[in-house]
Amino acid sequence: MENRYLAQTVNMNGQQITGPLQGINNLGDIVNKMTMFLLPLAGIILLFVLIWGGYDYMMSQGKPDKIKSAQAKITTGLIGFILLILAFFLTKLLTTIFGLSGWSPF
């Protein structure tokens, strides 16, 4: 018999009700679900950081300190994007190496 500690199922009057953790059987499933939720959220935050930096750059009126601040925001956003992509591929690589999922980025 397979142990499913995280799966949820309830039978009420012959009707089966499944919980939000249905389909999660191991650590790889948890990592995949979290990754698929957090990556789009991080992408949306990145978009707002880039818009904020672009707005500050346009409104700097040629003042060097404001231009430098706006460029720093844009640079930070782009570095964050690169780290986000690297974290995604590192997560997928590690889950593949340790056999926690069936997907491989390579």
Secondary-structure blueprint:
Blueprint lengths: L8 E4 L2 E4 L8 H32 L5 H34 L9
Helix pairs in contact: 1-2
Q: How would you sum up this structure, described in words?
A:
With 106 residues, the protein is mainly α. The protein contains 2 helices and 2 strands, in the order ββαα. The protein has a two-stranded antiparallel sheet. Helix 1 packs antiparallel against helix 2. It is elongated. The mean pLDDT is 80.
Primary descriptors:
mainly alpha, about 110 residues, single chain
Short description:
With 106 residues, this protein is mainly alpha-helical. It has helices at residues 27-58, 64-97; strands at 9-12, 15-18.
Strand adjacency order, main sheet:
1-2
Distance between the first and last residues' Cα: 35 Å
**Share in β-strands:** 5-15%
Structural class: mainly alpha
Which descriptor suits the 3D outline? elongated
- Cα-based radius of gyration, to the nearest Å: 21 Å
Biggest sheet layout: 2 strands, antiparallel
SSE sequence, one letter per element: EEHH
Report the oligomer.
single chain
Percentage of helical residues? Answer: 55-70%
Mean pLDDT: 80
Number of helices: 2
Q: How many strands in all?
A: 2
| Uncertain runs | none
